[in-house]
Write a structure and sequence with these properties.
Number of helices: 11
Number of strands: 0
Low-confidence stretches: 6-10, 18-27
Distance between the termini: 53 Å
Strand content: under 5%
Shape: elongated
Largest sheet: none
Mean pLDDT: 83
Order of helices and strands: HHHHHHHHHHH
Radius of gyration: 24 Å
Structural class: mainly alpha
Length: 273
Amino acid sequence: MSVVPAEVLPGSARAVEETVRGAAELGPRARLWPSLAAVYRAQLSRARVARIPLLFVATFQSVGIMVLMRGVVDGGAEAQAVVAGSSVLVVAFVALNLLAQYFGQLRASGGLDHYATLPVPPAAVVLGAAGAYASFTVPGTVVTAVFGCVLFGLPLAHLWVLVAVIPLAGAALAGLGAAFGLLAPRPELATVLGQLGMSAALLLGVLPADRMPEAVRLLRDLLPSTYGVEAFARTFGPHPDWAFVLGDLAVCGLVGVVSLAVATWAYRRAAVR
């Protein structure tokens, strides 16, 4: 009597195939929004303690810059540019600088392998981390804006526009910071790129544009945070032109979509290597 393995029987092969297919159907693909919410909560809880001191440093830095500029700028459009640029600088420090360092260290330490094994879309990882880091900028940005308005005698009536400026500028800068960290071959280079980006936001965003050379103004127009600064600065006037404010916010949002898409592509590229 010969013994034939059950696996070679046609009926058994079909049964095994159907069982495997049925088991695969039991694990549905993770959806984007639930995955994004899970990554956001995890990042927020992980970075809450570690990032609060850095957020204080970012706020103190922006407040100190406004105090220094108070001795040079008296008021008018220049004061509006200083307050708006210093407020958005808090966003740049956290969303651009710190996020570049985080993804650079995550790639160097092999942390991307952990996310790659989870049933989480790449966009959820990038958007969740970017949203968590951008959330830390809200208190510092509001405090900086209120302090700057009191320091330079600007109206506080339209500070509500920060509800749009913070997420849109944060998305644009966070996407850029994530791309720096994921594309840099070494974490040290990611840190340098993040620092350079924050320095550009400082020099090109806080200083009044009217005093810059034409070539520097062109570079300023390429910086994602510029449009958030311009939108916020326009609201300090007695009669803000809301069409221009909405236009600047729209450009900022478009840049945010593009930068986050680039960061998602960079995440896929880094995760498979």
